[in-house]
Amino acid sequence: MKLTNAGQRAYERYHHLVYTLLDTVSEDIDPDAIPSVLSITTPVDIGTHLMPSVISSFNKQYPNVEVKLFASDQVMDMSEADIDLAIRVGKLQGQAESHEDVIMKTRPFLAASPEIIQNIHDGMYPEGAPFIRLLRLPETKEMKLRSTDTMLKLKSVAAADNAIAAQQMAYDGLGATLFTGLPTKPYLEKGRLEKIDHVVMPDIYIFASWPGRRLTQGAKALLDLFKKELKRQQLDG
């Protein structure tokens, strides 16, 4: 058999809906069933530096499951985008809900080139130090320097959609940069990009989220592998 052009278009539009329906029915019949397709979304830096190893380990255990990764710093509507699992980085609004799992707490920090750091300490920015922020973190106007107990004014000059872009901008001397504190990135490099000492900032969290009342077996297995990889990266760091 060979599909007509109309049939091919229909297949491309609807086949994932059919597979999702079959997976849902299978899970209701057998709660331990692993779906044939697993869709996850993560921030760009996590998707780039952590997930390849996680997905590789998952594929060895479940070779018949297709993993679809959507790496984006924009929050996606999980139900509308048909996402099974989301790894988020940011502030928690309150107590974790029944469909959320707090993985770890992390402390954001500022980093900049030594020249920018010296200019900050010398008070060269009366209107606020040039500052590159990450879109998924709250915009901050000032931070407290613990060492001198003074407030550091910040002036946004750009907003990067992931830590790698922000790191490159800091390397180019455009200003200070806010990082999430994740163990994978950035790799600070003395003389190029250094942590600004003792900036007081609120903690943020890495947490998992999923639609519905329970986590599917496939998503649970991948989340467990993600936690192991995150712990390994922390130990290596």
Please tag this protein with its features.
about 240 residues; alpha/beta; D-Maltodextrin-Binding Protein, domain 2; five-stranded mixed beta sheet; 12 strands; about 25% strand; LysR-type_TF_proteobact-type; LysR_subst-bd; Transcriptional regulator, LysR family protein
Plain-language structure description:
It comes from Grimontia indica. This is Transcriptional regulator, LysR family protein. Residues 37-230 form the LysR substrate-binding domain. It holds the Pfam family LysR_substrate. Belongs to the LysR transcriptional regulatory family. The chain has 237 residues and is an alpha/beta fold. The chain has 2 domains: 37-106 and 204-236, D-Maltodextrin-Binding Protein, domain 2, CATH 3.40.190.10; 108-196, D-Maltodextrin-Binding Protein, domain 2, CATH 3.40.190. It is built from 6 helices and 12 strands. It has helices at 5-29, 44-49, 51-61, 114-121, 163-171, 217-236; strands at 37-42, 66-71, 85-90, 100-106, 109-112, 129-134, 142-145, 150-160, 176-179, 194-195, 199-200, 204-209. The strands form 2 sheets. The protein has a 7-stranded mixed beta sheet with strand order 10-5-9-6-8-7-11, with helices on both faces. Strands 2-1-3-12-4 form a 5-stranded mixed beta sheet. The radius of gyration is 21 Å and the shape is elongated. The termini are far apart.
